[in-house]
Amino acid sequence: MTSATHELLPEATDRPPGRVVFLNGTSSSGKSSVAExxxxxxxxxxxxxxxxxxxxxxxxxxxxxEEFLPIFQRTVRGFHRAVAGTAAAGNDVxxxxxxxxxxxxxxxxxxxxxxxxxxxxIHCPLPELERRERARGNRTVGRAAVQFPLVHQHLQYDVxxxxxxxxxxxxxxxxxxxLRTPPTAFAHLQRQ
Length: 192
Known about the structure:
This protein is of the alpha/beta class. It is 46% helix and 14% strand. A 5-stranded parallel beta sheet has the order 2-3-1-4-5, with helices on both faces.
């Protein structure tokens, strides 16, 4: 029997919104490694949605910086709405993102209203970020330095991890422990 012949099950529509574990950190801070470990650690089906993946699936053309900026911003805003829709359908989501500009946070606060969002700070010192950028070879060297003073600015977190001191598995365990109680940081930012 193909999936086309199945009726939509009540369990698919009657679920409360899924949890959103929102990993915020600079490029090369270890967000993807922590996200992958969370998918292995957490019970039930979880989805890893990363803003980098969203940029990769956009068509490739030659744009000027002036032409590209609104495209970039629409891509990020679309990513936020894809995450919110996935969670609103009852799916648990691990988000891999960089809140390096105020408009990104403002948009998330609006779009994720009513969702249980655990805001997680992914920290790593700048010298280690720069070492990782050089070692990886697939990152623009200097990107983390630009993001470093901005990405955690004016934020509070439900949990914070330090990827220079903790393995991805240790970070995932710390985050999973925090999921036992309701999130507070995102709601506090929304009230502000």
